[in-house]
Amino acid sequence: MNESIKADDMEKLIGLIEKIAVSKHATIAMGVRDPDPDTVKCAVAAVEKDYADVILVGNQAEIEKAFRALYDIKDETASELPFQIIDTKTPEDELVSLLVSGKVDAAIRGTAKASDSLSILKKACHINKIHRIAILLTKDGNPYFFAPVGIDEGTTTEDKIEFICLGTHLLKRLGVSPHVGLISSPDEDGKREAAEIVRIITEEKKLHVVDYKLDLEEAFEHSNYIIAPNGITGNLIFRALTFLGGGDGLGAPILTDRHVFVDTSRSAGHYTKAIMVASALSKKKK
Fold it and tell me: What does the alpha-carbon distance between residue 51 and residue 23 come to, in Å, rounded to a whole number?
């Protein structure tokens, strides 16, 4: 990564997010389906690290069973839970309801169903499109922001411009100076689109973006916010870096004006960090 970017803010970003999360100590709801001890362990760790007060939204009996298995507790009446449980058979509905009603400061999807959760969220928040920005840690521990990662996201020029504008605002909220790197297709349509994006972002939006074409290495070397050609490509790059490249995902905040919802991958299991991000981004005052 460019040394000026590192020195400015990126090197300390994770520590900063953690510090903000602890200072806010928000109330975070997490969707739970088919809970296992590892999932529950993530919630317990978030409470122990003082990131948030955690509410698990799902089948209470199953969550309590997973908790007892985690600590090898035999007596069903002897365990005092470090988190609250809201018992429901439809965690997707309840999770969004808690969020939009203001009963919690933020929410993470956890192991709730992705398509149902996002569909309900869109309807409740009266939004037509979802804009998720993944927070990625490389194997070396360098943090990056990355979008789009949803397979139906970033399909148009306008959508990519919206991602850049919303994402740079998110970075600035966290005290990060945005350095946007655009990855573009080498065909004629890709070249025209990239040129249009750069023109609009620099001339009309007064933001800075560099088109690195297909040079992913250069983009990661000199940028802290990477824009993929589309959601399918972005999803594949993100999965390759996390599951094959030894990286780590901290969740993908969905950018809305009023509410904070952090999307997570059911296969990742790193919900402690997603809770940390949700607490830090919440509207709760320090």
Answer: 8
